[in-house]
Design goal:
Elements (H helix, E strand, L loop, with lengths): L4 E7 L12 E6 L2 E6 L6 H8 L3 H4 L10 H4 L2 H16 L4 E7 L2 E12 L4 E8 L8 H15 L3 E9 L3 H9 L3 E10 L2 E9 L5 H5 L17 H13 L22 E5 L2 E4 L4 E4 L2 H4 L8 H12 L9 H13 L5 E5 L2 H16 L3 E5 L8 H4 L10 H4 L2 E4 L4 H10 L4 E6 L12 H12 L2 E5 L12 H5 L5 E4 L10 E5 L1 H4 L22 H16 L2 H22 L6 E4 L6 E4 L8 H13 L2 E2 L11 H24 L25
Parallel strand pairs: 12-22, 14-15, 14-16, 16-17, 17-18
Antiparallel strand pairs: 1-6, 1-7, 2-3, 3-4, 4-5, 5-6, 7-9, 8-9, 10-11, 11-12, 13-19, 18-19, 20-21
Helix pairs in contact: 1-4, 10-19, 11-19, 15-16, 20-22, 21-22
Protein name: Glutamate-1-semialdehyde 2,1-aminomutase
Pfam families: Acetyltransf_3, Aminotran_3
InterPro entries: Acyl_CoA_acyltransferase, Aminotrans_3, GNAT_dom, PyrdxlP-dep_Trfase, PyrdxlP-dep_Trfase_major, PyrdxlP-dep_Trfase_small
Length: 663
């Protein structure tokens, strides 16, 4: 890396107003802790010792001065300069940093000449020769890009690089910059190249490719989980189950290691104790673009400014419906709601009205609705009348004969077949979905695809497009809004109109919700559609997931536990297996694996990835997994988890009794 790189940063300060003095990081780079912090007068001696020996390399690229190099790099000169920089920072005209490595100064980075009227600034950065080639400057640049693009809404970045400085050119090229032109005699008669980066052109690696420093340790060590545990206890006093979703419950995590989160950014989340994690699962699979994804937030902010909920439809409803129907070839009409259960239960009601039948055949897949028609068919079914339970029957995925048998046993009574066309663990066998379609047609039942997970994760157009089988109705949600609450029921016009005003049939109370058309989530959905059109989030998830699976499974093989622990499933939607020494699925060993991942800064009940996960995030996860598997193998050799596991094992979310994790 060169000593000095000059760049011009142009960005909007937005409502935050000004720069001030901030600390960025820390991040880990090849085992070194890198941080950007404000300069202090007390740094004078260390800074002078670092800069003075590098005069031949640095002075030609620094601003011209009548002072000799020794004077310019004296402690007195530093203290005077530091005071001036801090004054400029207080006046919102500069953002100065020292680059530190393991606590010691390694160089400088200065955002200077801030012009708020023009929204522009210049950046100087130099790194000591001893730190060149160790990725320190790359990490410092990424920290700044992450901060400026995220918090300060950076729109354009230009970099002036000395001609022939191939190291600098490589650095900026990898960060997404493109060469624009030549600046002849730019500084001291030296020619420079002008490179630029637009926010819309950034590769995903340049946005959040920052390995985390995890402060997670055993409870009571490191930062621990003291605050999270206190908040969780309070939640149990206020909210049944301690969470508003059973899958988010503390019983799904090791005891006293259930983080209560305070914020997220990209694929990272922070808990109440300050621990930082790489998150998998990403909002129960609802976030594919990353937490705080700027284009979605920008769209939401614009919608908020114009009002959220009205007594009549908005123009946004027209645009959102058009966007949705352009994605799904088999859908003629759509109705928006808030939760997946809203959509699937409306589909059941519509199918019953259209066919005059009551029964529903559901595939043996995990979850379709919080409403009685489905919950009556699971173990946690207290409060559901028996006659309601009896109206739902199950069949097996990839087993046409089981569905054929259900039709035979309940002749003329099944209104619809509800299923996911595929899951993380199971692809449809050749001819299976086509066979389901044919059986539904032969028996006069409707085919309903649940696209909650497959939509925007298999394809923006859903699994029905991937596998080429068209349902009568389809239900959508999860990633539609990148975490904002929105779901949809879509289908054939003749069916959907049964809930409209252009029908002679008795009207179906299809969906009529106060918050279904609120503008914020519709705006978020439209921004998601644009993101999928302008980039390739699914391709990123597939590549990162493949990298993760290969790394995790390689680590398991190296440790001889590949038959017990494995990353499996579609790369964009993976889970992990945890088996005991006999090869049986094991909740105690699952809990031990979760515990060891949490200690190493990885949070997730699965390996479901997002487009915000970077190569570095995946590499961190692979390292954490390898270390966790060392403990896992020790427990296997010990004959059980008792010496290693803190607290009781996790338990299935939809069990009939609170035991074995009863409070």
């Amino acid at each position: 890396m060169p000593g000095l790189l000059r760049q011009a940063l142009r960005f909007r300060f937005g409502s935050l107003g000004g720069t001030g003095l901030v600390t960025l990081g820390p991040v880990v780079t090849r085992g070194k802790v890198v941080e950007l912090r404000p300069p202090e007068g007390a740094d004078a001696a260390e800074w002078s010792r670092l800069a003075r020996p590098e005069g031949d390399r640095l002075e030609p690229r620094w601003a011209e001065s009548d002072l000799d190099w020794v004077t310019r790099t004296s402690e007195a000169a530093w203290r005077e300069r530091c005071a001036e920089l801090r004054r400029l920072a207080r006046d919102d005209k500069a953002l100065p940093f020292l680059i530190t490595v393991d606590g010691g100064i390694a160089g400088e980075l200065l955002l200077d000449r801030v012009d708020r009227g023009r929204g522009s600034a210049e950046l100087d950065v130099w790194i000591s020769q001893a730190r060149e080639g160790a990725s320190i400057t790359a990490s410092a640049l990424r920290l700044l890009l992450h901060h400026a693009f995220g918090e300060y809404e950076l729109r354009r970045l230009t970099a002036a690089i000395p001609v022939g400085d191939h190291g600098a050119a490589t650095l900026f090229s990898r960060a997404g910059f493109r060469r624009e032109g030549l600046l002849r005699g730019y500084r001291r008669s030296l020619d420079y190249e002008l490179w630029s980066l637009l926010a819309t052109d950034r590769p995903e690696e340049s946005i959040s490719d920052l390995p985390i420093v995890s402060a997670v340790d055993v409870p009571g060590g490191g930062r621990g989980f003291e605050r999270s545990s206190a908040l969780q206890r309070r939640l149990h006093e206020l909210v049944p189950g301690g969470a508003h979703t059973y899958a988010r419950g503390s019983d799904q995590y090791p005891e006293d290691m259930a983080p209560v989160l305070v914020r997220g950014d990209g694929c990272r989340v922070w808990d109440a104790d300050g621990n930082c994690f790489i998150e998998y699962g990403m909002g129960l699979r609802s976030v594919t673009l990353g937490h705080g994804y700027r284009p979605v937030l920008d769209a939401v902010h614009r919608a908020l400014a114009d009002g959220v909920n009205f007594s009549r439809p908005t123009r946004l409803e027209v645009a959102a419906a058009e966007d949705f129907l352009s994605l799904v070839p088999g859908a003629d009409m759509v109705k928006f709601a808030k939760n997946g259960s809203d959509a699937t239960s409306a589909a059941i009601r519509l199918a019953r009205a259209a066919t005059g039948r009551d029964m529903v055949a559901v595939c043996d897949q995990p979850f379709f609705s919080a409403d009685d028609w489905f919950i009556g068919a699971v173990e946690m079914n207290a409060g559901v009348p028996e006659n309601t339970r009896n109206q739902t029957v199950r069949f097996q995925f990839n087993d046409l004969e089981s569905l054929r048998q259900r039709f035979a046993e309940n002749g003329g009574q099944i209104a619809c077949v509800v299923m996911e066309a595929a899951t993380a663990l199971a692809e449809p066998e050749p001819g299976f979905l086509e066979g389901v379609r044919a059986l539904c047609d032969a028996h006069g039942a409707l085919l309903v695809f649940d696209e909650m997970i497959t939509g925007f994760r298999w394809s923006a157009s859903g699994a029905q497009t991937v596998y080429g089988v068209r349902p009568d109705l389809s239900c959508w949600g999860k990633a539609m809004g990148n975490g904002f609450p929105i779901s949809a029921l879509a289908g054939r016009r003749d069916l959907m109109e049964l809930g409209g005003l252009r029908t002679e049939s008795p009207r179906v109370f299809l969906l009529s919700t106060t918050h279904g058309p609120e503008t914020v989530s519709l705006a978020a959905f439209r921004a998601v559609v644009r993101a999928y059109a302008d980039s390739d989030p699914i391709g990123v998830m597939e590549r990162r997931g493949t990298q993760l699976a290969e790394g995790v499974n390689s680590a398991a093989s190296e440790l001889g536990v590949e038959h017990l622990v494995a990353a499996i499933g579609r790369p964009s939607c993976m889970v992990f297996t945890t088996r005991d020494g006999e090869g049986r699925p094991s909740q105690p060993y699952r809990t031990l694996f979760l515990q060891e991942l949490l200690r190493r800064g990885v949070l997730g009940q699965s390996f479901v990835i997002s487009a915000a996960h970077t190569v570095a995030d995946v590499e961190h996860t692979i390292r954490a997994t390898r270390e966790a598997l060392v403990v896992y193998r020790q427990a296997l050799e010990d004959g059980g988890v008792d010496r290693f596991l803190i607290g009781r094992p996790v338990a299935p979310a939809l069990r009939s009794l609170a035991r074995p994790r009863q409070l």
